[in-house]
Amino acid sequence: MMELLPWHQSLWQQLQRSRRQGRLPHALLLSGAEGLGKLAFAQSLARSVLCEQPDSQGHACGHCRQCLLLDAGSHPDLRLITPEEGSSTIRIDTIRELVGGNTLRVGEDAHRVFIIEPAHAMGQAAANALLKTLEEPIPGTLMLLVSAAAEKLPVTIRSRCQLLRFSPPAAEAATSWLEQQGISSTDAGLALPLAGGAPLKARELASSGALQERQALMEDFVAVARGQAQAPGVAEAWLKRKALEPLLLIMAGWLMELVRNKLAGREAEGASPLQSLRDWVDLKELYMLLDRLNEVRRMSANNLNAQLALESILLQWGHITKGVN
Ligand SMILES: [Zn+2]
């Protein structure tokens, strides 16, 4: 049986109330950032709807005929529509086949569920093909549109779906979930802000080695501020690991984190070594460095000398943090 992610609880209960009252909408738009488990939620909901005897919480029983078909991945009334391999778009033919004639049988007791993920991968034509079905819902059919970029969907589509908005859980809840997943609280504290608070994304970051790499870069960055490392050497070492553009983005992220912390006037969540510098840097100078960074990013298309560009930013960073020790 699929377990519900803890931060899905209230959305789940809300939908289960509707399901029990027979008022489940015919189309839902599951919207929210990557890494919040929207697709898993859609799949659990599909199981709940298709199962013959869901339990009191609405979870699929796991042993009825429908559940066995679901477990085998061969339930005829559940379709997951995603872009074809090697493509980033959902083809109009796929949607046409879905909404056309024989897949959608009208007037049956049985339910059918279609999950479209990511829904914004439908081009205009595919979206138009789907629109008709959203305008004239077919009884017993549940459409689940999953998207981390719902704003890219045509308004006509969005306005015909009930919005189900997924938000990141509180940092404490996310951290304890990550710990249950075998991730140390230190790593959780580092990964969560990077993942925008999305636990699944944080888990991926924490287990991919990306975290360790960023951590090493940040140690250099702090070392420059403390006068323990020189800009030219750091720039050279960094460019051996990464291209200029991603390095600029990472630094911009750190500088914005400092800006946010200064504006909030409090310690941020997590254990970033950057925190120790917060009181040493001037807000105005941080903004100026961010401007400089963006300027370099704009120029970086024109055969910029990456070493010199990065060096100049690190020098300026060392300058505005002068006095830290
Ligand atoms: Zn069942």
> Span between N and C termini?
54 Å
* Low-pLDDT residue intervals, each spanning 5 or more residues: none
Number of strands: 5
What Rg, in angstroms, do the CA atoms define? 25 Å
**Overall SS class:** alpha/beta
CATH architecture of the largest domain: 3-Layer(aba) Sandwich
User: How many distinct helices?
Assistant: 14
CATH superfamily of the largest domain: P-loop containing nucleotide triphosphate hydrolases
Report the average pLDDT across residues: 89
Reported for the largest beta sheet, the result is: 5 strands, parallel
Main sheet: which strands, in order across? 2-3-4-1-5
Measured by DSSP, the beta-strand proportion falls in 5-15%
Portion of residues within helices = 40-55%
Would you state the CATH class of the largest domain?
Alpha Beta
Q: Strand-and-helix sequence, N→C? A: HEHHEHEHEHEHHHHHHHH
Approximate shape: elongated
Bound molecules: zinc ion
CATH fold description of the largest domain: Rossmann fold
Summed up, the domain count is 3
Give structural notes.
The chain has 325 residues and is of the alpha/beta class. It has 3 domains: 6-165, Rossmann fold (3-Layer(aba) Sandwich); 170-208; 209-320, Zinc Finger, Delta Prime, domain 3, CATH 1.20.272. Helix content is 51%, strand content 8%. The chain is built from 14 helices and 5 strands. The protein has helices at 9-20, 38-50, 65-71, 92-99, 124-135, 155-158, 171-180, 185-194, 199-208, 210-225, 231-241, 244-264, 283-299, 306-320, and strands at residues 27-31, 78-81, 112-116, 141-147, 162-165. A 5-stranded parallel beta sheet has the order 2-3-4-1-5, covered by helices on one side. α5 links the parallel β3 (112-116) and β4. It is elongated. The protein starts with 8 loop residues before the first helix and ends in a 5-residue tail after the last helix. Zinc ion is lined by residues 51-53, 60-61, 64, 66-67.
